Amino acid sequence: VYDSIDSDGRFLLHSFARQVLKAGKKQRVLWMSGSPATTAQIATGLRKIGCDAATSYLRQQKSTLSSDLSSPLEIRSLSVEISDAMLEEAGAHWDAERYMKQVYRNIKAWIRQNQCNDDGNDNANDDAPHWLILDDCTSLSSLVGDVLTMSFIQSIVSYVARLGNGKEIGILLRCSSDVDQEIARKAQKAAQNSNSSVNLGWVGAGGGAHPDLVPADKLASWTPWERSLCDFVDCVIDVTPLASGYSREAHGRLTFTEIPGGRGWGNTKNQGYNSNSNSNASSGSTIANNFQTNLQVVNYCL
């Protein structure tokens, strides 16, 4: 999920987690937050939209991973943990790499525990995966650095890809695309003022920073690290403000993009994408590898 300051996409994570944690399902969610939000604030947001697991979580007031898998929802606020660690080690050098390695080991332990629990469960034939939510990777990178955050995400994706038999683990990421959206807005405004058209290129997955819009000598320095996440995900949701501005009927726009070579929105491997759709969807332009990107654009109202 790519969002920005003007269009916060955390509501998608809340809606998704509520859907996963429906009563009667055996799925579990581990929510790792890099934003300043506390665990209680995240759980309260889930409870407000009717998530029973969040209500149970608030009663227990869990703040760390535990071996008890009775609760389907686990929440950790990494930013709060980092600030507490820095205060405890006042005057000493806080080791960000050591901390992120420990978080990675905790995630691996959570995955292994859930898979062992599934193996001993008679109802483990449900193919629905458990989910790991990494909320606001951009904020996390401001605390531990871009390189360390990217390595952390790549390590998790690589570990999940190596898992053998057992229930799958899904990963949902949220990060910022402020740079791309700002470039696109400036280009659209300049085109309107000059009564000319501008080629924005690929709409989804941060495609606003098109070479036609950015000088060649500045393109490399303006490319955010978050755009590299598209290389190993299946789908992307861009949360963008309306070009016409805020309105009561629609608060923003969602662009759903299937990444070429990914599994799309289903469980099967897609060999290619058909640009023709029965719904009112916008078809993407041909990109470098000659795949057709299937885009679906809808307005949302909260």
Short description:
By secondary structure, this protein is α/β, with parallel strands linked by helices.
Question: How far is the first residue's CA from the last residue's CA?
Answer: 17 Å
Overall pLDDT, averaged?
76
Shape: globular
Order of helices and strands: EHEHHEHHEHHEEHHEEE
What is the number of E strands? 9
Biggest β-sheet: strands ordered side by side in the sheet:
3-2-4-5
Please, how many helices?
9
Q: What helical percentage do the residues reach? A: 25-40%
Instruction: Give a quick account of the main beta sheet: strands, pairing sense, barrel closure.
Output: 4 strands, parallel
The secondary structure category is: alpha/beta
Strand content: 5-15%
Which spans of ≥5 residues are poorly predicted at pLDDT below 50?
Answer: 62-67, 268-292
**Rg measurement, Å:** 20 Å
Write up what this structure looks like.
- The chain has 302 residues and is an alpha/beta fold.
- The protein has helices at residues 10-20, 39-48, 52-60, 78-88, 96-119, 137-144, 146-161, 178-193, 216-219, and strands at 2-3, 29-33, 73-77, 130-135, 169-173, 175-176, 235-240, 252-258, 295-300.
- Helix 2 (39-48) runs antiparallel to helix 3 (52-60) and helix 6 crosses helix 7.
- The longest helix has 24 residues, at 96-119.
